[in-house]
Amino acid sequence: DDLQSRQEEEKIRIADEMRILNRVVTKCVKYLEKSKHLNEEGLFRLCGDHSQIAKLRQHFIQGNPVDLSTIMDPHTVAGLLKLHLRELKFSLIPPRDQTK
Fold this sequence. Notes:
Layout: H1 2-34, H2 50-62, H3 74-86
Helix pairs in contact: 1-3, 2-3
């Protein structure tokens, strides 16, 4: 019964993370596509504004509305996306599909 309870909690936690992930990825990619920054040199290599990235991430996690159109630096939006993917508590690629 305790194992089943923990498994349910884990499923809920992953579902919550997936909802946040969906919002982050959707908003970041739309911003980068719309603003034509996908061709920006070093887009996913150069750092954005760390404090702004942290604030934006908190807004997403808390479920607050996020308006990326006010962000002038595409590296900040790319950095937000990278940070969120890096800090996921689960792998996007199931272990059975990962090559060694």
